[in-house]
From TrEMBL:
InterPro entries: Glyco_trans_1, Glyco_trans_4-like_N. It comes from Caldichromatium japonicum. The keyword Transferase applies. This is Glycosyltransferase. Keywords: Glycosyltransferase, Transferase. SUPFAM superfamilies: UDP-Glycosyltransferase/glycogen phosphorylase. One of its GO terms (biological process) is carbohydrate derivative metabolic process.
Length: 370
């Protein structure tokens, strides 16, 4: 089977990493991959051993020429199936190209934003199957009018066995000796600090400002609390200003993007994810695989990755008081953090394996290509 994949992300964030896992797994099973991605994207280099990579200009929703470029590639490469992994124009123009090229089209949907009802009959007729990465996204799409017979759920995955993956929670680690070069030392953190990590793009729906609103009360209770926000995005300057205006500069740092983030996870005592919307949350799976307890919001697909009272605590979105209370509950209980961390590792191993994700996608392909 030859699959033409289209991934519009320039960085190796959660969605692009899923594509990398998928093409690697498909290659191992004897299938051929052709990957279309943006010029200069990280995945272009990383996927080269597993796919024929074709870097193209991908200009977003208004890039009408993308349909022409993809159609030319379809005619030249003759794929059995097209798998669209992104929005930002790749979904619309990729779907149109597949229809014009008379090739089955699969769309993976990674976000839980509702579609406009008037658009659904027009847009979703372009796709033979729509894969939701969580049950939460499935329910949103179903509610928007996407036909149920087109919808499938294949959850995102991570690889806990990857060499760089952390596999033990910080609560099980002994204190580092003076001068040690462990993750806390690398981040300039004191060994006796309580450390909260947040890993998300700096965009409104990730809920950074809800966390900032919850912090004054927490810092009064835990004066040695440190909060590290990893990620980049358009809210960077706004968040920096709010951190300063709230007097949080001693306790909160914007860390930017760190490609070695898995190596730094043992520095955290807790991961917090106060998202307003979330398809599933690869950062949650990463944290769970690393043995970290999690406080997150009960939205989208998050309850599938964070089971309340099992590997973390869930709170309503946009509720700083509830968020602060849940964080305080876990910061005060080291043993409960350890138990939640172990449960999270077991959950990821059981329900979010790369093998299951690859086989789930293949099962969808085989519905269209017997």
């Amino acid at each position: 089977m030859k699959i033409l994949h289209v991934e519009a992300g320039r960085h190796l964030y959660g969605g692009a990493r899923q594509v990398l896992y998928l093409v690697q797994g498909l290659k191992a099973r004897g299938h051929d991959n052709l990957l279309v991605c943006p010029l200069g994207s990280v995945i272009a280099e990383r996927a080269a051993p597993f796919a024929q990579v074709q870097a193209l200009p991908l200009g977003g929703d208004l890039d009408v020429g993308l349909s022409r470029r993809l159609l030319a590639l379809i005619k030249a490469s003759q794929p059995d199936l097209i798998h669209l992994h992104s929005r930002r124009g790749a979904d619309l123009w990729g779907g149109l190209s597949g229809r014009l090229g008379q090739v089955p089209v699969v769309l993976t949907r990674r976000v839980d934003n509702p579609e406009q009802h008037w658009l659904v009959p027009l847009k979703y007729r372009l796709y033979d199957r729509v894969i939701a990465i969580s049950q939460g996204i499935y329910e949103v799409l179903l509610g928007c009018g996407v036909p149920q017979d087109k919808l499938r759920v294949v959850r995102s995955a991570i690889d806990p066995a990857a060499p760089e993956r952390v596999t033990a929670p910080r609560s099980s680690h002994p204190a580092q000796p003076a001068g040690a070069s462990g993750p806390r030392a690398r981040l300039g953190l004191a060994e006796d600090a309580l450390v909260i990590g947040m890993i998300a793009q700096l965009i409104p729906r990730k809920g950074h400002q809800v966390l900032l609103a919850a912090l004054p009360e927490l810092i009064r209770t835990f004066p040695r609390l440190q909060v590290l926000c990893f990620g980049q995005g358009p809210l960077s300057a706004t968040l920096a200003q709010e951190i300063s205006s709230r007097g949080l500069s001693r306790n909160v740092r914007l860390m930017g993007f760190h490609p070695d983030l898995p190596e730094l996870l043992p520095a955290f005592d807790l991961l917090v994810h106060p998202a307003l919307k979330e398809g599933l949350g690869i950062a949650l799976l990463e944290a769970a695989a690393a043995g970290l307890p999690i406080v997150a919001t009960r939205v989208g697909g998050i309850p599938e990755a964070v089971r309340h009272g099992v590997n973390g605590l869930l709170v309503p979105p946009e509720d700083p008081q509830a968020l602060a209370a849940a964080i305080a509950e876990l910061l005060q209980d080291r043993e409960r953090r350890r138990i939640f961390g172990q449960a999270g590792q077991a959950l990821v191993a059981c329900e979010f394996s790369v093998e299951a994700m690859v086989e789930g996608n293949l099962a969808v392909y085989r519905e269209l290509i017997p």
